[in-house]
């Protein structure tokens, strides 16, 4: 079957979206698009330019000049602002702790949603984020809402940090994740929420391989 579908993957921080999306896309020979990285790139630029993150109008002006580029790389998606690579710098804790303030503004969201829809137009994509199934791609052939308990999600991030030899504080991570989830779920514009036609998947007790297998089966079910 040559049909190339759109797969929308939403859920809170640390649910495993990007890990699973990357592997699923590789399996299907699809393109993986990490929309969180786009909100992170806007946040990095806003912080660098000293923009007040509560000022939606100024952020809207930033959007008109900001040249965000996504390209596929060896280890997933690479992110550029113009010619400058920001793949690593958008993962800083300063960006992480500020991104949900930037992401609540309609002026920011409308510009990014437009870009995301363009990227998904031809199908053959796995897109992850918070509002993909509800707002960005309401007609996606497969929608999954992936979650896990906040303890498990913080634990995953903690183990990831420790494995990388980074300093990590489990309790602080859990508080940061809970706070970001709360902001993402309670904002007025496109909050984090399960689409009515999304499949709910609790990954608390599942390994990465188990989740990838489950999603591959779901995708193959749609492609049949
Ligand atoms: O990977 P992690 O779970 O830390 O987050 P992310 O996917 O990189 O997203 C970072 C932030 O961007 C989220 O906490 C949201 O505030 C925002 N975001 C959003 O509002 N809508 C999306 N479609 C994707 C991300
Ligand atoms: O993209 P999102 O924030 O939803 O999560 P992620 O960055 O893909 O996953 C966070 C961490 O959890 C990574 O270190 C994954 O290896 C790990 N993980 C896991 O241990 N078990 C799963 N079922 C999924 C992810």
TrEMBL record:
ATP binds at residues 11-19. Its main location: cytoplasm. It catalyses: dCMP + ATP = dCDP + ADP; CMP + ATP = CDP + ADP. InterPro entries: Cytidylate_kin, Cytidylate_kinase_dom, P-loop_NTPase. One of its GO terms (molecular function) is CMP kinase activity. Residues 7-219 form the Cytidylate kinase domain. It is found in: Cytoplasm. Gene3D superfamilies: P-loop containing nucleotide triphosphate hydrolases (3.40.50.300). One of its GO terms (biological process) is nucleobase-containing small molecule interconversion. Its EC number is 2.7.4.25. GO terms for cellular component: cytosol. The keyword Nucleotide-binding applies. Keywords: ATP-binding, Cytoplasm, Kinase, Nucleotide-binding, Transferase. The keyword Hydrolase does not apply. It comes from the Bacteria. It is an enzyme of class 2 (transferase). Belongs to the cytidylate kinase family. Type 1 subfamily. NCBIfam families: cmk. This is Cytidylate kinase. It comes from Exiguobacterium oxidotolerans. The gene is cmk.
């Amino acid at each position: 079957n040559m049909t190339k579908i759109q797969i929308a993957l939403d859920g809170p921080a640390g649910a495993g979206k990007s890990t699973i999306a990357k592997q699923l896309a590789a399996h299907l020979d699809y393109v993986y698009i990490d929309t969180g990285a786009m909100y992170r790139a806007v946040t990095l630029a806003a912080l660098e330019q000293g923009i007040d993150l509560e000022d939606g109008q100024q952020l809207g002006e930033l959007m008109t000049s900001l040249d965000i580029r996504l390209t596929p790389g060896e280890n997933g998606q690479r992110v550029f602002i113009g010619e400058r690579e920001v793949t690593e710098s958008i993962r800083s804790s300063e960006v992480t702790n500020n991104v949900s303030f930037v992401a609540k503004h309609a002026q920011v969201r409308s510009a990014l949603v437009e870009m995301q829809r363009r990227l998904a137009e031809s199908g053959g994509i796995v897109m992850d984020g918070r509002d993909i199934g509800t707002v960005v791609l309401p007609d996606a052939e497969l929608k999954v809402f992936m979650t896990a308990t906040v303890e498990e999600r913080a634990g995953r991030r903690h183990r990831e940090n420790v494995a990388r030899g980074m300093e990590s504080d489990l309790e602080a991570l859990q508080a940061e994740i809970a706070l970001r989830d709360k902001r993402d779920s309670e904002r007025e514009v496109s909050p984090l929420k399960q689409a009515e036609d999304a499949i709910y998947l609790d990954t608390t007790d599942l390994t990465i391989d188990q989740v990838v297998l489950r999603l591959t089966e779901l995708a193959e079910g749609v492609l049949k």
